[in-house]
Amino acid sequence: MALLDENRLLPVDQGVRALARALYDAVKNAPIVSPHGHTDPRWFAQDAPFADPAQLLVTPDHYVFRMLHSQGVPLESLGVPRVDGGASETDGRKIWRCFAQHYHLFRATPSRLWLDHAFETVFGFDTPLSAATADDYYDRISQALTRPEMRPRALFKRFNIEVIATTESPLDDLKWHKMISESGWDGRVITAYRPDAVTDPDFEGFGDNIEQFCALGGQSSTSFDAYLDAHRDRRGYFKSFGATSSDHGHRTAATLNLDRAGAKALYDKVLAGQADAAEREAFRAQMLTEMAKMSVEDGLVMQIHPGSWRNHSTPVHQRFGRDKGYDIPTRTDYVAALKPLLDAVGEEPDLRVILFTLDETSYARELAPLAGVYPCLRLGPAWWFHDSFEGMWRYREMITETAGFYNTVGFNDDTRAYLSIPARHDVARRVDAGFLANLVATGRLSEEDAYEVIQDLTHRLARQAYKL
Amino acid sequence: MALLDENRLLPVDQGVRALARALYDAVKNAPIVSPHGHTDPRWFAQDAPFADPAQLLVTPDHYVFRMLHSQGVPLESLGVPRVDGGASETDGRKIWRCFAQHYHLFRATPSRLWLDHAFETVFGFDTPLSAATADDYYDRISQALTRPEMRPRALFKRFNIEVIATTESPLDDLKWHKMISESGWDGRVITAYRPDAVTDPDFEGFGDNIEQFCALGGQSSTSFDAYLDAHRDRRGYFKSFGATSSDHGHRTAATLNLDRAGAKALYDKVLAGQADAAEREAFRAQMLTEMAKMSVEDGLVMQIHPGSWRNHSTPVHQRFGRDKGYDIPTRTDYVAALKPLLDAVGEEPDLRVILFTLDETSYARELAPLAGVYPCLRLGPAWWFHDSFEGMWRYREMITETAGFYNTVGFNDDTRAYLSIPARHDVARRVDAGFLANLVATGRLSEEDAYEVIQDLTHRLARQAYKL
Amino acid sequence: MALLDENRLLPVDQGVRALARALYDAVKNAPIVSPHGHTDPRWFAQDAPFADPAQLLVTPDHYVFRMLHSQGVPLESLGVPRVDGGASETDGRKIWRCFAQHYHLFRATPSRLWLDHAFETVFGFDTPLSAATADDYYDRISQALTRPEMRPRALFKRFNIEVIATTESPLDDLKWHKMISESGWDGRVITAYRPDAVTDPDFEGFGDNIEQFCALGGQSSTSFDAYLDAHRDRRGYFKSFGATSSDHGHRTAATLNLDRAGAKALYDKVLAGQADAAEREAFRAQMLTEMAKMSVEDGLVMQIHPGSWRNHSTPVHQRFGRDKGYDIPTRTDYVAALKPLLDAVGEEPDLRVILFTLDETSYARELAPLAGVYPCLRLGPAWWFHDSFEGMWRYREMITETAGFYNTVGFNDDTRAYLSIPARHDVARRVDAGFLANLVATGRLSEEDAYEVIQDLTHRLARQAYKL
Q1: Taking CB atoms and an 8 Å cutoff, what residues of chain C touch A366?
Q2: Which end of chain A is less crowded, N or C, counting CB atoms within 10 A of the terminal residue's CB?
Q3: How far does the CA of residue C382 sit from the closest CA of chain B (Å)?
Q4: Contact call for A71 and B375, based on CB within 8 A
Q5: How many domains would you assign to chain A?
Q6: Closest chain A residue to C8 measured between Cα atoms?
C-alpha cells in the first residue's frame, strides 16, 4: 500500500487526466528553482545530521503545531519552548506520539500531503502514521537521520535543487553563507535581503537595530542619509552572497513618497521613539518606496508580503514568543496603498516588484488588474495558507484571465520545512498541469501551447522573475 | 415522474458519483441532530394540526416571500400582516395561487429543492407546482394537514429527529418547553439562550427589557452587577430546559474587554439612554466577552452570528415590521473584532465559541486561520443564504485545507420551516459525500477515512461541538 | 486547422457536454440584443470602411495594449497618442508586428478568444497569429477591410444584431444618431444617457459642462432647479433617439437623499468650486437619487457601474490621457451605499435599477440578497475584467441560489471593439449552456426548464430588463 496516489491532484475526468498526466510528466523531474524560502543556511554550511523526528518535523513546523493546538493540545506538549524557561516537553518520542495520535486532524490538509510525501519518498513508509504506527515511524526516522544520505547537502542533491534562496536580516553577518561559499560545495544557496528589523518601528529592538545596522553598513552616524547609505551598503553585501531580491513583510501594503525633508523629519521622529501609530505606519510606507528606488539602482527584485497580523494572541506571544502559529491574515488593499510607489517608479523599465497576498479577494479585483498593466509588477504564487491544491487552483482561476501567465512568477515554497520542499513543488506542478489540461479540454489553450506553458510555470518564469 | 432526482447534488463524473453515492448511502438514514434552529416549541407542546398550505409554506417563509416580492408581488398579496392593521390577503388559496404562478422564480434555488422535497416526500406529489397544478396542490395539502400523521410530534418521529434546539429570548418564560417536558412525550426539544433583547441597546424596548429581565432573574435592582447575575440566573434556567448553547446575533463581531469600572460606567450610560452609536456598539462588544466568561463558568457553548444588516428598508420595516426578508449581509471582520475576547479567554480549555459568517471572504482569510489555532474556536456551517449546494461547497473548499474537518461542527438547519428540515440535512449530507468523494478521487483522502469523516460531518461533530 | 474548438467552454464531462451543446445549439443563432455598449454611432451613420488592422484591433483596445504594456512595451510603440503631441508609432504594420510578437501573452485570456473568433469567423484565418504569421495577417486583414461586406452596416447584419445601444454624454448633440435615423437604414442603434460629465464634480471641465448642459437643456440659468430641468429635457431628447436607459459610472455606489434645501446648497457649493472631497462625493450620491426619481417619472432604466479607480497612474494619465488601461477595480460597498436611494424609491413599482460590480465579493454577500428582495433591483452581467469564462461562471454560481435567474438581465457586451461583439455573446451563451447543463446533471433543474431558461438568458431577459 502506498501513502500517495500517483495521480493525486489531477482532474477526475479521465480524458482531462490523461493530458494533465502527460503535462505533469514533462516537468516532474525538472530541477527545483526555489527563489524564496526560509531554510537555515547553517544546515548547508555545517552539513550536520538533523536531530530527532520531532525536532525535524513537529516542533518547528507551525502548520503542524497550530492544528494540534487548535484541538486543545498545549504547545508545551509539543516541545515549543517557553519564554520564561518553564517546562516544555523534551522527549522527542512523547512529542511524536502526541502528533501521531492526532494525525487524523490533518485529513485533507496540505500538511498531510507534504508529510506523507516525505514519509513515503524520503523514509520509505507505506503504512499511514497513526497512534498504532507512531513508534515504528519514530524508530525508523531516527535511524535514517544518522545516515549520510540524510544530511542537508545530500538531500539538496537528491531533491534536485538548482538554486535555493534563504532569507536574512540586514543585521545578519551571513557567516553561514560565507562558510558555504568558502567550502567549495557546488550547491547554489543564496540569500535575500529582509530589512523589516530596521524598517518597521514596531519590530522588537528597533532603535538598537538601527544603530547596529548603520555601524554594520560602515556609517558613523545614524542620520537618515547614513541610514539610507547603510541600506545601499548592506544590499551590496547581500548581493555579493548571491542575493537577487529583497523581501518586505509589513502588515499592510501602504506606500508613501514624501519629499526628502518630510522623510527625514519622519525618520527622526520615529528614531526618537516619538512617532504615533500612524507615523510608524507612514515610515514603513515611505521605506517601501525607498527600497523600490534602490531596486531601480541596484536591480534587486522587490517582494512585498503584506496582510498578516503577526502574533495575534497576546497571552501566547508573551508565553512562547513570535511565530507560534498565531499569524492571521487580514483584509488587504493594494490599489490605494501602492499608488504612491507606483506613481514614483511604477513605469521604470528595470524595476520589478513581486506582490503576494493572503487576501484572495484581491486576486481578481486588484492584483491581476494591477499586474496586467504596470510594467514593474508581477504576482507571486498562492501564499502560505493558500499554498495548497485549492489555494493554487483559485489563484490560477482568478488571475489568469486578466493578468495572463506571464505576469506571474512560478512557484515559491517559502518554507523552513526542508523535507517538504519536493512535495510542495510537486503539488504546484500537478495543479498547473491539471489547470492547463482543463484549458485545453475546454478550447481555451492549444495542446502545443500547454506544453510550453508548463515549462514556463515550473522553472522559466521563476528564473526570469528573480533574475536567477 | 418524480420531483427529485435520486442522485441530485452528487458529482457528475460517474466514477466519483458512485463513491459519493456510497458515502451518502452510509448516512442518508442517520438521525437528525439539529443543534440550532427556530422551530416553535408551541408546536411540540400543543401538537395541534398546522393551518392551511399558505400559512404553513408561504406566509412565514422569508426565503419564499422575498423572492416573490423581488419580482413585484406586494407583501400584502402573500398574507404578510401590516403593522397598521391595513388589509392583507387572508384567503389561503389566493396566496397559494400567487405563489404557484411565480414558482419558476425559484429555479435553481435551494428553496425550490426544499419545497419539492417536502412536496414529494411528505405529500406524495409527482407533478411540479405551477399555475396549472396550484389548486390540486392546495387541496391535497389541506386535506393532508388534517391527518394525525401530519401533526408536529408525528412529523418529529417521521423526520427521525434525535434532538432539536429552539431559540428563545431570556424574557421568555419557556412555558412551551415546560409543557413539553411535563407531557411525558419522549421527543428531545431543547432551548438556547439568545439574549440580544437585553444585550443590544438598539433592540426595540431595550430599557423595558432590562427591567423585566432583571426581575425575572430574581434581581431587585438593575445595576450592572444585578444585570450580570440575572444573566447567570437565566442561563441556569435555560440549562434546566436542556440548553447547551447561547446565541448572539449582533451586526458585527466586535468584542471588548473593559475593566469592571469601565464596563459599569458604560452600562449605566447605555441604560440611561445617553450612549451614542459607538458606545452602544461598545456595550454589545463588552457583552460578548461577558457572555464568553460566563460560558467558561457554566459550559454553555457560545454561538456568534454577526454580519446581517437587519430590516434594511426603512419603509418596509415601518409597514410590515421585523424579519420581512430585508436582512442583508455585510462585510464582516473577525481578526481585529475578536481579539479582545480571545486575549481574555481564548486559551481557556473548556470554552467553546462557534463562529458563523455571511461574508464568505472571511472563510479562507480569517475564520479558518483563527479556528486552525485557537483552541476555543469552531466554525459553524455555511449559513443562511449559503445554506445551499454552492454555498456549502465553497465553505468546504475554502475552510478545509487550513482548519481541517475537526474545527467545524457539522450541519445546522437554522430554520423555522419545519417541513424543510429533512431536505436541508439531506442537502448537507449529499454535498459532504460529494466533497469527500472528490477528495478520494484526487488522492487527498483515503476511502477508509472518507467513510469515517462522513459520519463525523453528519452527526458526531454536531453532538460533540454542542455537547449533546 | 481551426483557431476555435467547436466545443470550447462547454463542460468536460461528456454527458454534461452533450446536453450543454444541445442547449447552446438552441440559441447560438439567436439575434444579438446589446443593451449596453460603447460602439461609435458615427460608424453606423457614415458606414465608412475601417482603417488598418492596428487601428481596428490594437490601438483602441485597452485590453490589448494594457497587456502588452504590462510586459514592458511602451504605449507609444502601440500607436497610443501622447497628450503633448510627442512621437507615437503611426506605421500600422510595425504596431501589428509588435502585437503579433507578444501574442503568447494572451494565452488563456478572453482577449485571445475574442481575437481568434474574429480572425477565424470574420477573416477566415486558420493559423494562429505569431511573429511568423504577422505580415500575412496584416495583409489579408488590410485587404478585407476594403470590401463592402466589412463596412459597419454590413457587419451589423452579418452579426445578426437586433438592437445595439451606444452611450453618450448629455453634452452630445446626438448628430450621428440623427443621421442614422434620417438615413432610412433599418438597423436599430439607440443611445443611452450617461451624465457623469455633469453629475461628477471631479470630471474634467465640470463647471463648463454644467453651463453648456443647462443651455442645451433650454435653461437660461444654472440654478439647481434649472439644472434638474435640464436633465429632464436631455433625458427626453435621448429618449427620442431610442434611449431606454441611463448609465452612471461613479467610483462608489454612494447615494444620498437630502431635503431640497440641502441639495440646493450642496449644488451651489459644488458649482462654486468650494466643495471638499466629501461634499463632491455627496453630490454624486445625491445625483444618483435624483436620477432614480426621474426614472420613476420617465421610465428610463437606471444602470449603476461603480467601483473603478479610473486613470490610476498619474504619470501615465498625464502623458496619455484618460482610459489607457489604468482603471483598477476597488472594494465596493452596496448595502450602506444604496440605502438612501432605496429608502426613497426602492419600492416604486415601475422603477428599475441595474447594478454592476467589479468586486466579486459583493455578488453573494450583497448584490444577490439585495436583488432578491427589492423589487426595483436587477443585477447586470459579469462586468469588464469578469466578462470571461471564469468570471461568468463565478457570477452564476454566486448569484443564482439567492437571486435566481429572473433578477438578472442577460448579457451586455459593453464594448467598443466592434468585431468582438459576436464572440462575446457567444461566450456568454456557452457559459450559460454549460451552467444549466450542470444544474440538470446534478438534479437542480429539469431539462425542460433548462431549454426555457437558456432563451431567457440569451435574449428575453435583456429585452425585458431594458424595455427593448
Answers
A1: 328-330
A2: N
A3: 18
A4: yes
A5: 2
A6: A443
Give Cβ neighbours of residue C3 (< 8 Å, ≥ 6 apart).
C116, C117, C119, C120, C125, C126, C128
For B159, half-sphere exposure in the C-beta direction (CA atoms, 13 angstrom radius) is 28
Same domain, C233 and C121: no
All three cell numbers of C136: 500575412
pLDDT tens per residue across span B304-327:
999 999 999 999 999 999 999 999
Q: How close, in Å, is residue C17 to chain B by CA atoms?
A: 11
Report the chain A residue with the minimal C-alpha distance to residue C390.
A397
Structural domain ending residue among the three candidates C99, C123, C150: C150
pLDDT cut 90: percent of chain B above it: 99
A12 and B442 in contact by Cβ < 8 A? yes
Residue-number span of the structural domain to which A226 is assigned: 14-49+152-465
What pLDDT digit, counting tens, does each position of B243-269 carry?
A: 999 999 999 999 999 999 999 999 999
Confidence (pLDDT) at A179? 98
State residue A49 phi and psi, 5-degree precision.
Answer: -65, 150
Distance from CA of B394 to the nearest CA of C (A): 10
pLDDT tier, C1 (very low <50, low <70, confident <90, very high otherwise): low
Distance from CA of B31 to the nearest CA of A (A): 25
Residue type at C326 in one-letter notation: Y
Q: What is the mean pLDDT of residues A418-427?
A: 98
Q: Does the structure show a pLDDT above 70 at A1?
A: no
pLDDT tens string C296-344: 999 999 999 999 999 999 999 999 999 999 999 999 999 999 999 999 9
Grid cell for residue C449: 426548464
Closest-approach residue (CA) in chain B for C341 = B313
Tell me, yes or no, whether B386 and B319 share the same domain. Answer: yes
Q: pLDDT, tens digit, for every residue of B414-429?
A: 999 999 999 999 999 9
Instruction: Identify which of B105, B313, B327 has the shortest CB distance to residue C404.
Output: B105
Q: Per residue in A178-189, pLDDT tens?
A: 999 999 999 999
Task: Name chain C contacts of A403, Cβ cutoff 8 Å.
Answer: 70
**Claim to verify: residue A94 and residue A158 sit in the same structural domain:** no
Residue C94, pLDDT above cutoff 90: yes
Q: At which of C128, C150, C172 does a domain end?
A: C150
Give the CA distances from residue C250 to residues A47, A339, C247, C329, C396, in Å, rounded to whole numbers and listed in that order. Answer: 61, 20, 10, 12, 25
C-alpha cell, C96: 501589428
Contacts of B128 in chain C (CB under 8 A): 446
Q: Are A108 and B404 in contact (CB under 8 A)?
A: yes
pLDDT at B295: 98
Judging contacts by C-beta atoms under 8 Å, the chain C residues touching residue A449 are: 104, 107
**ipTM here:** 0.97
Of C105, C107, C327, the CB nearest to A445: C107
Task: Look over chain C and give the mean of its residue pLDDT values, rounded to a whole number.
Answer: 97
- How far apart CA C146 and CA C397 sit, in angstroms, is 44
B369, A329: Cβ pair inside 8 Å? yes
- B378 shares a domain with B340: yes
**Which chain A residues have a beta carbon less than 8 Å from that of B449?**
104, 107
What residue type is A412 in one-letter code?
A: N
> How do A245-248 and A189-190 pair as beta strands?
unpaired
Confidence of residue B1 (pLDDT cuts 50, 70, 90): low
CATH number, residue C136: 1.10.2020.10
Give the tens place of pLDDT for each residue, A4-19.
Answer: 999 999 999 999 999 9
Segments of B21-104 assigned E as strands? 32-34
Q: Which residues of C touch A336 (CB under 8 A)?
A: 309, 330
Query: How does residue B24 score in pLDDT terms, banded at 50, 70 and 90?
Result: very high
How distant is the Cα of C247 from the closest Cα of chain A, in angstroms?
Answer: 22
